[in-house]
Amino acid sequence: MLSILSTVLTFLALILIPCLFISRRLSVPLISFTNIRRLINVAASQCDEEEESGTSGKKEKQERLPNHVAIILDGNRRWAKKRGQSTEEGHEAGSRKVIKIAMDLFTLGTKTVSLFAFSTENWGRPEDEVKYLMSMFEKVLKSEIPYFQRHEVKVSVIGNRTNISESLLGSIREVEEGTMSYKDRHLIVAIDYSGRFDILQACKNIAKKAKNGLIQVEDIDENLIDKELMTSCSEFPNPDLLIRTSGEQRISNFYLWQSAYTELYFPNVLWPDFDKAEYLKTLTWYQQRERRFGRRV
Ligand SMILES: *[C@@H]1O[C@H](CO)[C@@H](O)[C@H](O)[C@H]1NC(C)=O
Ligand SMILES: *[C@@H]1O[C@H](CO)[C@@H](O)[C@H](O)[C@H]1NC(C)=O
């Protein structure tokens, strides 16, 4: 009798204590079996990542956690309208979510998070809204520098800088310089960015190098283009997973070259309502996808 009891107690200690520990670390409530299953999946893939990868089985498990997640932040305006609030309040609510979700993603093992904050096409929005968004970027980037430093998040801003105001450029430089030494967590913010713009500027750089005799036409290959794209600032330039909130199913000129093999996910949730539970759902969906990279299609 005593030995059965001690077996049961040992079993509980071996299973429950690590579970509670992991749950505390990931700050996910241990409320349901599905959550426990997710936790075990996530923990297993995190352990795998810490080991040297050897067998192909391990490699496959590794692929189930996205290294790079790109997000098209959509639905702030609709969210505000539904509540009878102003567009600005919608963007404000959306911006409060951004840093929180990015941190959740990092905690769950993602290394690079890209945010499509302002597209080249967004210049066509009402002047007041554009002005508001620009001053919001300036404020958020600047005020969050101590937070990024505390959590060791490297921040890079990509996009066309020619039409960006001096004061926003100042904040961009400040946040980039203040966080450039960090390696494990990388936040990429796309402002006045578009996929076509990125490919265009890469072409121009390559043409200049060819004209100056630095490279030959025969040297131009996919690798070289990868290096000239603005995402070359990341260790993982191509997103494994792209999320666009609010139910719209378009890439809208975000990463074009980089999304060739990306899993695309379109949750029917407006951006300010996207939370960690939604991301866990996304992750479960992602882990069930067989990542073929076009090989067996
Ligand atoms: C440059 O920015 C201004 C607002 O600051 C905007 O009205 C204009 O459309 C932008 N120009 C281009 C070419 O994007
Ligand atoms: C960058 O923006 C400027 C001004 O908005 C524009 O004239 C220029 O063509 C853009 N560059 C590229 C490569 O699209």
From TrEMBL:
This is Alkyl transferase. It is an enzyme of class 2 (transferase). Its cofactor is Mg(2+). Gene3D superfamilies: Decaprenyl diphosphate synthase-like (3.40.1180.10). Keywords: Transferase. GO terms for cellular component: cytoplasm. One of its GO terms (molecular function) is transferase activity. Its EC number is 2.5.1.-. It comes from Eruca vesicaria subsp. sativa. Belongs to the UPP synthase family. Transmembrane segments: none annotated. InterPro entries: UPP_synth-like, UPP_synth-like_sf.
